[in-house]
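Hi P.,

Sorry for the delay on this. The queue was packed all week, but I finally got your sequence through. Input first:
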Amino acid sequence: MEREWKDNKKNISCIPVGDYICERVQSPKFKNTFEICDIPNRTDVLFHKGNIEDDSHGCVLIGEQYHRYKGKASIKASREGFAEFLYRTKDIDVFHLKIVDCIHIS
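Then the structure:
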């Protein structure tokens, strides 16, 4: 889950359509994760756990399933879900990410 398109503004917009490289990093806040690199005019765009759009700050949230919270789209995120993401990428330090479109769930 990530935020909606708002002209690629830092901390409030989703990531623009494009091809990106993701590299494993050690974030001070989220520890072992991946950063999406070379997003125009953006830095520190990470994968991390969260439940609602406000948890994103322009990053990508990893969750287990979609649901609703206070009438808005959200995801069920838990330590287990993010741990599963890290387990599945344990032998990967770099991968390609292709963002093709934005799907709005309200």
